[in-house]
What we know:
Strand order of the largest sheet: 1-2-3-4-5
Radius of gyration: 33 Å
Number of domains: 3
CATH architecture of the largest domain: Orthogonal Bundle
Amino acid sequence: MLPTTADVGEQRDLYILQAFRLSLSRNVRGGLPTDIRQKVGKNFEAAEMARTVYEATLATRSARLRLPIAGKPHWRVIEQGLHLGYRRRATGGSWIARHRNDSGLYHETKLGLADDLQDANGNNILDFSQAQRVARVWCTQKQRLAAGDRAPTDEPYTVVRAVADYLEDYRRRGGKSPDGIESVVKRNILPELGKIAVVKLTPQRLRDWHRGLAERARYWRSRDGGGVKLAPFDPKDAEHVRRRRASANRVLTYLKAALNLSWRNGLVPSDDAWRRVKPFRSVEAPLVRYLSSDEIVRLRNASSGSFRDLIYLALLTGCRYGELCRFKVADYNVDVGTLSVRISKGGKVRHVILTTEANTFIASLIAGRSPDDALLCHDDGRSWKRAEQVRPMREACARAGIVPPVGFHILRHTHGSLLAMRAVPMAVIARQLGHADTRMTEKHYAHLAPNYVADMIRKSFPILSPEVPVIVPIDQGRKGARNMDLLS
């Protein structure tokens, strides 16, 4: 027999109440007396819940026990169109909520038992203030359902559904690199947390997962259908640990963004579980690796053909590998000497300023070519694709004697570092590299820029080891000291 519409509605109401009670129970301190009016916890104040209504005949256990036993509830209006009822029985009372819709019809639901005989636990036994909060959550969900918003079904709202909703919203808002975020989520979040209902997440469970990410070796990219490859990881190496913790923090950011969206949409009653989980500290300040002038020459000499052109243009412009691959001949503006990055990581168009050397090099690349042609391509005419730079870069570093080998992105860091070391303002470097503001630029390159403090220290501090040693006889030194004593 198929469930009726009323049955489905009751199942939804039951899920909403169970979810909110589970969150509420985490915020109720055990052992508190319930014969007094309890205050709203800080977590619910942060959620901007409505003010608790006071009713002398319902607020305390002793007041409710003085009410007559009756089948008809005692109602109290807690906001327009929403009533909280208390039904007194011989074995104890229970809480009921009643909501009036736009048509004037009332919908009722049982919220839980009153704390007449047992202390409130925030789950199935509620005091007066807790019953009001549960009633308001139930009313809000009913209103959203009537307005056509998607509401929870009889199935639990799991992490995998929250992540799917977030990615859909992220793509609709035009977020940057959605496919990359989806890949990270599938690899690091869903295998362990995907099937868990969001309301059942606990701070300790999330901390264990976050710590586990930091203690696990990094996955290496592999071919489709290939086995899982793990990068070398030394837990005693401070730099390895820093990198893994920084990666774990980024994944935690993605998870929190998805869960916060579900909370803002009213699909979960509280954000307390993940708000208590903090990222690792002091892990986002790496020492930027860049190539010296000698290493640049060796790397270019160790490369050949189209890959040599790719390296050269990356050093001249500071563009990312993906941006270099998407350049067309038409993106070069010979009149003003710029390259237009039409699809960037930040989602904004930017214009990279070219030096005279860069203009000369690009002019040699585009000679006799169509505006729709790719600016950079393989020797056989194919366009550069994703990850095709990894192996040639590793081989070029080995031939050039660059130890440890660097990734292609280091060429972008080299461009920014060379500008910083020549006292180019951080705002100019940020605009050249496509940063939204100077925070990221200062984080990576500010320590390379010459400044007044460094110049004054180097100018004023004395030389402790002179090139020509000065020998002072011992007796002469003592005589000079005695003379100084007499003068004083």
